[in-house]
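Transcriptional regulatory protein
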Amino acid sequence: MLRVVIAEDDFRVAQVHEKFLAKIEQVELAAKAKDCAETLAAVKQEQPDLVLLDNYMPDGLGIELIDELRKESPETDIILVSAANEREYIETALRKGVKGIILKPAELGQFTATIEKYRKDREKLSSQETIDQEYLDELFGVKAIKKEAPAVKGIDPLTMQKVQKLLAQYEDGVTAEKMGEEMGASRTTARRYLEYLVSTDDCYAELGYGIVGRPERKYFVK
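Tokens:
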């Protein structure tokens, strides 16, 4: 169960965020605080997993409270929920290691998605004994660049691009014979390109039956 402290000086906003939290599975409210002093005390007492931290508090700035919160509870993470959207503020927040930033007024969808992502990332990380690059790329939102495929005998790159564009137009799949007609080549040539795309996992093939009941292989873009 993910235990959360809401640090928000506006009680109406705090109530809205509390209702949002109640809609998320495996999350519970540990405490609410309306200023920096109460937030610090709540974190010290509750040792929560997460603090939803406003920036503009009656007795100070939430961004300046982060270091003190970490001293009281090193394992507590922070997601900022604030109207502050200045570049300097965002840069400072990222340098301080916040796990997310939700700009006010918070919408249910964005609020839920941010908390859910944090919860899932936390659970997945705690279940790993060792970490590989694929997991780190997923955690930090990095999309690995595919290595350029080596040249293959009988496969012309320009023709391949044409085949891929044509294939994308056939949502219901296309046969090698039909592809050959479209690209102005023989069925054998079209099949060679289509089968190459199957081998690179860029399309897949299914066996069906033509008008006269003859088995035919249809290719579908992924």
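The longest strand covers residues 27-33.
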